[in-house]
Specification:
The chain is an alpha+beta fold. Strands 2-1-5-6-7-4-3 form a seven-stranded antiparallel sheet, sandwiched between helices. Strand 1 and strand 2 form a beta hairpin. The protein is globular, with a radius of gyration of 15 Å.
Length: 148
């Protein structure tokens, strides 16, 4: 469904419908729709994400790596984004340094089974396995949007 890191038609349709359902708050708390302003179009683009909770923090992970469009859009938007799950929450996505990603990636794979085919480590693998791939998979801590 994600050949060369890009969604095919089926994946795009599935992502749109999932984002709509997640935004409505229909599914568990660990899923949401993430909205980020497109770096080219300027429109807010919505897509489904799984939230990983670790050490009192919430995180989103790019299962497709650094070249995913949403990761580029987050960088262009200086981390400004919106999460929707029933309600609407303005957030700032702060990228986690690779040396701190391993336990978060492991937790993410435990709660996001759909990401497992994209990340070459099992959900119960030792942290050393995650440390080897951590720089390839961006992780963002979800923080409240700072008030100007």
């Amino acid at each position: 469904m994600y050949r060369h890191g890009r969604p095919n038609l089926f994946a795009r349709i599935q992502n749109r419908s999932s984002a709509w359902l997640f935004a409505a708050g229909i599914w568990p708390r660990r899923v949401a729709a993430l909205g980020v302003r497109g770096r080219r179009s300027g429109r807010v683009i919505w897509f489904p994400v799984v939230l990983a909770e670790f050490d009192d923090g919430r995180y989103v992970v790019s299962m497709l790596g650094r070249d995913a469009n949403w990761v580029r859009n987050v960088a262009a938007a200086d981390g400004h984004a919106v999460l929707r799950h029933g309600g609407r929450e303005k957030v700032h996505l702060a990228e986690v340094e690779p040396g701190r990603r391993a336990p978060i990636l492991r937790q993410y794979l435990r709660v996001a089974p759909g990401a497992r085919p994209h990340i070459p480590v099992g959900p119960n693998a030792p942290l050393a396995d995650y440390e080897r791939i951590a720089s390839d998979y961006p992780v963002f801590r979800i923080e409240p949007e700072p008030v100007d």
